[in-house]
Design brief:
Porin, 16-stranded antiparallel β-barrel, mainly beta
Length: about 450
């Protein structure tokens, strides 16, 4: 019974993922249509014969990486200071934390993933991924970290169409900055950090042999647009699912160049993205809109000679957006402004740019800048110590010793400017109107 329960639990993982999974040939048997049915030997929910290994049915694979970080922060960024986080802004210069420094080792950014290539369905390849790291449950101890679900999604992939369902990256804001801290530019112009439950449809429309449109539309969980999900009379509740989308031109005319952290080679991409939803507020006579729109581009400046090597390549990635009521994913500095009963959505805008250079295959350099700003400072009347802006200037180098081991060094300068300055508590104590941090980081990876 224990063995059978283990097999069932492992099988459940396979309902959840990315495109590009490989199809595994299915056994054939008289009377079965293996293309229409999930599989000749598979019934929904129960995958394969209980005496057979799951891996023989779905080509289950696993991977991830071990990552050790050492970070030195010129201010005390708290228990999660290894992330260089701007979650609550940089501590004011006048606060106790702003006058301390910090030295942290952590391995909590290590990750583990499971991928599966499953049976076909009406000509579509099916696949799944589950990925975890160790920042879950609010646990802050490096000695007893908690597992956190990052990705858990399944997909059906046809030649030009993909249907994805599960937990995946937010559709709003495609940019992901290549910072070694894996903050990915969150709160500073590249807010694509949250992973939210969703269902999305991606369609490629070929225009010419070298040019295509990539259209994405999806419905996703609205939790990222609120401070809390409770029934308090002064809190938020009743958020409707957000509708989000992208419309991008993808072109092969400039070849390909390294993208995020040099882990992928991407083509010229340019287009727009957006999001819309609604949310009820306690005491308000009407709901508040959540929305955002922006422009994204990726440009191969020096393309790969053969489409595979990173040697002598360079790329630029940039993004700009305007948004409202998207505080948690970093697109706006807050959720709401105005007095109780007449609250409106807080607005913000952001911009981000990054260059990645690989002089040789093993050695990479990345440098960039991102800034997120509150829109219309006057609308924040009555809100003490609101964040006028957060910014992040960074540069890093990485070197691959072999296919498994990578070492990297990074410098970041983080800054928060505050408005309506008041003597608060904790990191907001004192009357300073800003906080800044210099961050040095060493990291070692083992990819498996």
């Amino acid at each position: 019974m224990i063995y059978r329960g283990f097999i069932l639990a492992a099988a459940a993982v396979l309902f959840a993922v990315p495109a590009l999974a490989q199809e595994i040939p299915q056994a054939t048997a008289p009377g079965y249509n293996c293309d229409f049915q999930p599989s000749c030997e598979v019934a929904p929910g129960i995958y394969g014969k209980m005496s057979s290994p799951v891996s023989s049915k779905f080509n289950l694979s696993l991977g991830g990486f071990v990552k050790l970080d050492y970070a030195y922060n010129s201010v005390n960024l708290g228990a999660n200071g290894a992330l260089g986080s701007l979650q609550n802004g940089i501590p004011k210069e006048s606060s106790l934390a702003g006058q301390q420094d910090q030295s942290i080792f952590t391995a909590r950014q290590s990750r583990l993933w499971f991928k599966a290539a499953g049976p076909t369905f009406r000509g579509a390849k099916t696949s799944a991924i589950v990925e975890v790291d160790f920042y879950g449950g609010g646990g802050s101890s490096n000695e007893s970290p908690n597992m956190r679900l990052r990705l858990a999604n399944g997909s059906l992939d046809w030649t030009n169409t993909q249907l994805l369902f599960g937990q995946a990256y937010d559709i709003f804001g495609p940019a992901i900055s290549s910072t070694i801290d894996f903050g990915s530019g969150n709160k500073t112009g590249a807010p694509n950090n949250p992973r939210v439950p969703q269902i999305r449809l991606t369609q490629r429309v070929d225009l010419t042999p070298d040019n295509a449109l990539r259209l994405v539309v999806g419905v996703q969980n609205p939790v990222q647009d609120s401070n809390a999900q409770s029934g308090s009379a002064t809190d938020t509740w009743g958020g409707t699912p957000n509708v989000a989308g992208q419309a991008m031109l993808v072109s092969k005319t400039l070849g390909v160049a390294p993208g995020y952290f040099g882990l992928s080679l991407n083509s010229l991409t340019a287009g727009f993205f957006g999001l819309y939803g609604k949310q009820d507020l306690g005491g308000n006579s009407k709901s508040v809109d959540s929305w955002g729109y922006g422009f994204y581009t990726f440009v191969p400046l020096l393309s790969s000679a053969d489409g595979k090597s990173r040697a002598r390549t360079a790329s630029f990635e940039g993004e700009a957006y305007l948004a409202a009521n998207q505080s948690v994913n970093g697109a706006t500095a807050g959720a709401f402004v105005g007095p109780t009963g007449a609250r409106t959505a807080a607005k913000g805008y952001g911009c981000y740019g990054q260059i990645i250079l690989y002089p040789v295959q093993e050695f990479g350099v990345a440098a960039g800048y991102g800034r997120r700003s509150a829109y219309d400072y006057g609308s924040y009347s009555g809100i003490p110590n609101f964040e006028k802006y957060n910014s992040n200037m960074y540069a890093n180098i990485s070197y691959d010793l072999n296919a498994a081991v990578r070492v990297a060094v990074e410098y970041q300068h983080l800054k928060t400017k505050y408005g309506n300055v008041a003597n608060g508590t904790g990191n907001l104590a004192g009357l300073s109107d800003q906080g800044s941090a210099d961050v040095g980081r060493l990291a070692a990876f083992y990819f498996f």
